[in-house]
Design a protein that fits this description.
This protein has 2 domains: about 220 residues, Spore Coat Polysaccharide Biosynthesis Protein SpsA, Chain A (Alpha-Beta Complex); about 80 residues, no CATH class. About 45% of the residues lie in helices and about 15% in strands. The chain has 12 helices and 11 strands. The model has no long low-confidence stretch (mean pLDDT about 95).
Length: about 300
Protein backbone atom coordinates (compact mmCIF):
# COMPACT_ATOMS: atom_id res chain seq x y z
CA UNK A 1 0.00 0.00 0.00
CA UNK A 2 1.25 3.46 -0.82
CA UNK A 3 1.86 5.86 2.03
CA UNK A 4 2.21 9.60 2.29
CA UNK A 5 5.04 10.90 4.48
CA UNK A 6 5.56 14.20 6.24
CA UNK A 7 8.76 14.87 8.23
CA UNK A 8 9.27 17.95 10.34
CA UNK A 9 12.47 19.98 10.22
CA UNK A 10 13.95 18.13 13.21
CA UNK A 11 13.59 14.67 11.64
CA UNK A 12 16.52 14.74 9.24
CA UNK A 13 19.81 13.82 10.88
CA UNK A 14 18.33 12.89 14.27
CA UNK A 15 19.69 9.73 15.92
CA UNK A 16 17.24 9.05 18.77
CA UNK A 17 17.54 6.40 21.45
CA UNK A 18 13.77 5.88 21.58
CA UNK A 19 11.13 5.76 18.82
CA UNK A 20 7.60 6.57 20.04
CA UNK A 21 5.13 4.85 17.70
CA UNK A 22 1.53 6.09 17.64
CA UNK A 23 -1.10 4.54 15.34
CA UNK A 24 -4.56 6.04 15.02
CA UNK A 25 -7.75 5.62 13.05
CA UNK A 26 -10.30 8.35 13.61
CA UNK A 27 -9.01 9.27 17.08
CA UNK A 28 -7.23 12.60 17.48
CA UNK A 29 -3.65 12.11 18.76
CA UNK A 30 -3.34 15.87 19.38
CA UNK A 31 -3.49 15.81 23.21
CA UNK A 32 -0.86 13.05 23.33
CA UNK A 33 1.41 14.90 20.91
CA UNK A 34 1.09 18.07 22.98
CA UNK A 35 1.91 16.23 26.22
CA UNK A 36 4.98 14.55 24.73
CA UNK A 37 6.15 17.91 23.40
CA UNK A 38 6.54 19.21 26.96
CA UNK A 39 9.30 16.70 27.62
CA UNK A 40 12.87 16.99 26.50
CA UNK A 41 14.59 13.75 25.64
CA UNK A 42 16.45 11.76 23.04
CA UNK A 43 13.33 10.45 21.30
CA UNK A 44 11.46 10.69 18.01
CA UNK A 45 7.75 10.31 17.19
CA UNK A 46 6.24 8.36 14.30
CA UNK A 47 2.49 8.61 13.74
CA UNK A 48 0.44 6.38 11.46
CA UNK A 49 -2.99 7.41 10.21
CA UNK A 50 -4.34 3.95 9.39
CA UNK A 51 -6.96 4.97 6.85
CA UNK A 52 -9.01 7.46 8.88
CA UNK A 53 -10.25 9.13 5.66
CA UNK A 54 -10.64 12.39 7.61
CA UNK A 55 -8.91 15.29 5.84
CA UNK A 56 -9.61 17.72 8.69
CA UNK A 57 -8.01 15.40 11.25
CA UNK A 58 -5.05 14.79 8.95
CA UNK A 59 -4.56 18.54 8.53
CA UNK A 60 -4.51 19.08 12.31
CA UNK A 61 -1.98 16.29 12.82
CA UNK A 62 0.10 17.62 9.93
CA UNK A 63 0.28 21.06 11.57
CA UNK A 64 1.22 19.61 14.97
CA UNK A 65 3.95 17.44 13.45
CA UNK A 66 5.47 20.39 11.62
CA UNK A 67 5.63 22.47 14.82
CA UNK A 68 6.54 19.66 17.23
CA UNK A 69 9.77 20.19 19.22
CA UNK A 70 10.76 16.53 18.79
CA UNK A 71 11.80 14.85 15.51
CA UNK A 72 8.50 13.64 14.07
CA UNK A 73 7.22 11.78 11.02
CA UNK A 74 3.57 11.49 9.95
CA UNK A 75 2.69 8.42 7.84
CA UNK A 76 -0.72 8.51 6.21
CA UNK A 77 -2.44 5.51 4.59
CA UNK A 78 -5.35 5.78 2.18
CA UNK A 79 -6.88 2.48 3.37
CA UNK A 80 -6.98 0.79 6.75
CA UNK A 81 -4.44 -2.01 7.27
CA UNK A 82 -5.49 -3.11 10.75
CA UNK A 83 -3.97 -3.03 14.21
CA UNK A 84 -1.25 -5.66 13.77
CA UNK A 85 -0.14 -4.74 10.26
CA UNK A 86 -0.25 -1.01 11.01
CA UNK A 87 2.02 -1.39 14.03
CA UNK A 88 4.42 -3.56 12.05
CA UNK A 89 4.54 -0.82 9.42
CA UNK A 90 5.30 1.79 12.08
CA UNK A 91 8.39 -0.17 13.16
CA UNK A 92 9.70 0.09 9.62
CA UNK A 93 9.92 3.87 10.04
CA UNK A 94 11.61 3.77 13.47
CA UNK A 95 15.30 4.62 13.73
CA UNK A 96 15.99 3.93 17.42
CA UNK A 97 17.10 0.65 18.97
CA UNK A 98 14.13 0.77 21.35
CA UNK A 99 10.45 1.25 20.49
CA UNK A 100 7.63 2.65 22.62
CA UNK A 101 4.13 1.83 21.37
CA UNK A 102 1.52 4.32 22.57
CA UNK A 103 -2.14 4.32 21.61
CA UNK A 104 -3.35 7.67 20.34
CA UNK A 105 -5.98 7.98 23.08
CA UNK A 106 -3.41 7.76 25.88
CA UNK A 107 -2.11 10.65 28.01
CA UNK A 108 0.99 10.32 30.25
CA UNK A 109 0.24 10.47 33.97
CA UNK A 110 3.66 11.95 34.78
CA UNK A 111 5.48 14.95 33.32
CA UNK A 112 8.57 12.72 33.38
CA UNK A 113 6.93 9.89 31.41
CA UNK A 114 9.42 9.73 28.52
CA UNK A 115 12.28 10.51 30.87
CA UNK A 116 11.45 7.45 32.98
CA UNK A 117 11.41 5.24 29.88
CA UNK A 118 14.71 6.66 28.63
CA UNK A 119 16.40 6.10 31.99
CA UNK A 120 15.18 2.50 32.01
CA UNK A 121 16.60 1.96 28.53
CA UNK A 122 19.93 3.39 29.62
CA UNK A 123 20.23 1.43 32.86
CA UNK A 124 18.53 -1.90 32.07
CA UNK A 125 17.86 -2.06 28.31
CA UNK A 126 14.96 -4.52 28.87
CA UNK A 127 13.75 -6.68 25.97
CA UNK A 128 10.10 -5.86 26.76
CA UNK A 129 8.48 -3.65 29.38
CA UNK A 130 4.92 -2.51 30.04
CA UNK A 131 4.24 0.64 32.04
CA UNK A 132 0.55 0.11 32.73
CA UNK A 133 -2.39 2.39 32.22
CA UNK A 134 -4.90 4.19 34.37
CA UNK A 135 -8.11 6.21 34.25
CA UNK A 136 -6.69 8.98 36.41
CA UNK A 137 -7.35 11.80 33.94
CA UNK A 138 -10.77 10.67 32.65
CA UNK A 139 -13.85 12.50 33.90
CA UNK A 140 -16.61 9.99 34.79
CA UNK A 141 -19.46 9.82 32.30
CA UNK A 142 -22.68 7.87 32.69
CA UNK A 143 -22.47 6.32 29.22
CA UNK A 144 -18.92 5.09 29.95
CA UNK A 145 -19.61 3.75 33.45
CA UNK A 146 -19.54 0.12 32.34
CA UNK A 147 -16.15 0.42 30.62
CA UNK A 148 -14.73 2.29 33.62
CA UNK A 149 -15.85 -0.49 35.97
CA UNK A 150 -14.50 -3.27 33.76
CA UNK A 151 -11.17 -1.56 33.07
CA UNK A 152 -10.65 -0.69 36.73
CA UNK A 153 -11.23 -4.31 37.69
CA UNK A 154 -9.14 -6.08 35.07
CA UNK A 155 -6.78 -3.70 33.25
CA UNK A 156 -5.69 -0.78 35.45
CA UNK A 157 -3.52 -2.93 37.68
CA UNK A 158 -0.28 -2.06 39.47
CA UNK A 159 2.90 -3.76 38.30
CA UNK A 160 2.97 -6.08 41.30
CA UNK A 161 -0.30 -7.68 40.17
CA UNK A 162 0.54 -7.72 36.46
CA UNK A 163 3.72 -9.69 37.13
CA UNK A 164 1.65 -12.73 38.09
CA UNK A 165 0.77 -13.24 34.38
CA UNK A 166 3.23 -11.02 32.51
CA UNK A 167 2.16 -12.01 28.98
CA UNK A 168 -1.54 -11.57 29.74
CA UNK A 169 -1.32 -8.04 31.16
CA UNK A 170 0.53 -6.64 28.18
CA UNK A 171 -1.06 -4.14 25.80
CA UNK A 172 0.22 -1.93 23.00
CA UNK A 173 -1.16 1.10 24.84
CA UNK A 174 2.15 1.72 26.69
CA UNK A 175 4.63 -0.94 25.57
CA UNK A 176 8.41 -0.70 25.36
CA UNK A 177 10.15 -3.20 23.03
CA UNK A 178 13.77 -3.53 22.00
CA UNK A 179 14.07 -3.46 18.22
CA UNK A 180 15.92 -6.78 17.96
CA UNK A 181 13.12 -8.47 19.91
CA UNK A 182 10.49 -7.05 17.59
CA UNK A 183 12.44 -8.02 14.52
CA UNK A 184 12.41 -11.60 15.80
CA UNK A 185 8.74 -11.53 16.88
CA UNK A 186 6.47 -9.07 15.05
CA UNK A 187 2.70 -8.82 15.46
CA UNK A 188 0.74 -11.58 13.74
CA UNK A 189 -0.98 -9.92 10.77
CA UNK A 190 -3.51 -12.74 10.61
CA UNK A 191 -5.46 -11.00 13.38
CA UNK A 192 -8.32 -8.85 12.12
CA UNK A 193 -10.60 -6.38 13.84
CA UNK A 194 -10.17 -5.79 17.56
CA UNK A 195 -8.53 -7.76 20.31
CA UNK A 196 -5.89 -10.31 21.36
CA UNK A 197 -3.10 -9.52 18.90
CA UNK A 198 -1.02 -7.89 21.65
CA UNK A 199 -1.62 -10.66 24.21
CA UNK A 200 -0.80 -13.33 21.60
CA UNK A 201 2.41 -11.45 20.81
CA UNK A 202 3.21 -11.45 24.52
CA UNK A 203 2.75 -15.22 24.67
CA UNK A 204 5.32 -15.73 21.92
CA UNK A 205 7.77 -13.23 23.36
CA UNK A 206 7.52 -14.65 26.90
CA UNK A 207 8.93 -17.95 25.66
CA UNK A 208 12.21 -16.25 24.74
CA UNK A 209 12.59 -13.08 26.81
CA UNK A 210 11.52 -11.78 30.23
CA UNK A 211 8.69 -9.23 30.30
CA UNK A 212 9.25 -6.42 32.78
CA UNK A 213 6.24 -4.79 34.42
CA UNK A 214 6.67 -1.40 36.07
CA UNK A 215 4.56 1.57 37.10
CA UNK A 216 4.99 4.33 34.52
CA UNK A 217 1.33 4.63 33.53
CA UNK A 218 -0.61 6.66 31.03
CA UNK A 219 -4.33 7.38 31.16
CA UNK A 220 -6.60 5.66 28.68
CA UNK A 221 -8.82 8.53 27.57
CA UNK A 222 -10.87 6.54 25.05
CA UNK A 223 -13.42 4.78 27.23
CA UNK A 224 -16.22 3.18 25.21
CA UNK A 225 -19.96 3.10 25.59
CA UNK A 226 -21.58 -0.22 26.44
CA UNK A 227 -22.71 -0.91 22.84
CA UNK A 228 -19.17 -0.25 21.60
CA UNK A 229 -17.75 -2.71 24.16
CA UNK A 230 -20.21 -5.37 23.05
CA UNK A 231 -19.29 -4.79 19.41
CA UNK A 232 -15.58 -5.15 20.18
CA UNK A 233 -16.16 -8.38 22.09
CA UNK A 234 -18.12 -9.71 19.13
CA UNK A 235 -15.22 -8.83 16.82
CA UNK A 236 -12.70 -10.40 19.17
CA UNK A 237 -14.23 -13.88 19.16
CA UNK A 238 -12.46 -14.81 15.92
CA UNK A 239 -9.16 -13.55 17.30
CA UNK A 240 -9.69 -15.47 20.52
CA UNK A 241 -10.12 -18.63 18.47
CA UNK A 242 -6.79 -17.90 16.76
CA UNK A 243 -5.08 -17.56 20.15
CA UNK A 244 -6.61 -20.80 21.42
CA UNK A 245 -5.41 -22.65 18.33
CA UNK A 246 -1.84 -21.42 18.79
CA UNK A 247 -1.47 -21.21 22.57
CA UNK A 248 -4.07 -23.42 24.22
CA UNK A 249 -1.63 -24.42 26.97
CA UNK A 250 -1.28 -20.78 28.04
CA UNK A 251 -4.78 -19.43 27.48
CA UNK A 252 -6.42 -22.42 29.19
CA UNK A 253 -5.33 -20.92 32.52
CA UNK A 254 -7.23 -17.67 31.85
CA UNK A 255 -10.64 -17.17 33.52
CA UNK A 256 -12.20 -16.18 30.18
CA UNK A 257 -11.23 -19.56 28.74
CA UNK A 258 -12.39 -21.56 31.77
CA UNK A 259 -15.78 -19.82 31.86
CA UNK A 260 -16.16 -20.26 28.11
CA UNK A 261 -15.57 -24.01 28.55
CA UNK A 262 -18.34 -24.18 31.15
CA UNK A 263 -20.76 -22.17 29.01
CA UNK A 264 -20.01 -24.35 25.98
CA UNK A 265 -21.87 -27.17 27.76
CA UNK A 266 -24.89 -24.97 28.51
CA UNK A 267 -27.85 -25.56 26.19
CA UNK A 268 -29.72 -22.91 24.17
CA UNK A 269 -26.89 -20.36 24.06
CA UNK A 270 -28.58 -18.67 21.14
CA UNK A 271 -31.53 -17.84 23.37
CA UNK A 272 -29.92 -16.64 26.60
CA UNK A 273 -26.74 -15.04 25.26
CA UNK A 274 -28.62 -12.01 23.81
CA UNK A 275 -30.29 -11.52 27.19
CA UNK A 276 -26.88 -11.09 28.84
CA UNK A 277 -26.02 -8.41 26.29
CA UNK A 278 -29.36 -6.66 26.75
CA UNK A 279 -28.88 -6.46 30.50
CA UNK A 280 -25.29 -5.23 30.18
CA UNK A 281 -26.53 -2.38 27.98
CA UNK A 282 -29.10 -1.17 30.55
CA UNK A 283 -27.67 2.07 31.95
CA UNK A 284 -30.14 2.11 34.84
CA UNK A 285 -29.02 -1.28 36.15
CA UNK A 286 -26.28 -1.56 38.81
CA UNK A 287 -22.87 -1.21 37.18
CA UNK A 288 -21.29 -4.18 38.94
CA UNK A 289 -24.00 -6.56 37.75
CA UNK A 290 -23.84 -5.07 34.24
CA UNK A 291 -20.08 -5.71 34.18
CA UNK A 292 -20.64 -9.29 35.29
CA UNK A 293 -23.23 -9.77 32.54
CA UNK A 294 -20.89 -8.31 29.91
CA UNK A 295 -18.06 -10.62 30.98
CA UNK A 296 -20.43 -13.59 30.76
CA UNK A 297 -21.56 -12.40 27.33
CA UNK A 298 -17.93 -12.33 26.18
CA UNK A 299 -17.36 -15.83 27.56
CA UNK A 300 -20.50 -17.06 25.80
CA UNK A 301 -19.14 -15.68 22.52
CA UNK A 302 -15.80 -17.34 23.20
CA UNK A 303 -17.53 -20.66 23.90
CA UNK A 304 -17.67 -21.21 20.17
CA UNK A 305 -13.84 -21.25 20.08
CA UNK A 306 -13.11 -23.69 22.91
Amino acid sequence: MSETLLDNDRWAGAAPRLSVLIPFKGDDPGPLLAALGHEAGDAEIVLLDDGSDDPALAARVDAQVRDHPMPARFVRLARNEGRAKGRNRLVGHARAATLLFLDSDMLPDSPDFLGAWLRLVETDDPPVAFGGFSLAQVEPRRDQALHRAMASHADCLPAAQRRAAPEKHLFTSNLLVRLDVFQAEAFDEGFTGWGWEDVEWGMRVARRWPILHLDNPATHLGLDTAPAIAAKFEQSAVNFARVVAAHREVVSAYPSYRVARVLKRAPLRGLWRPLLKSYALMEDAPVRSRAFAMRLYRAALYAEAV
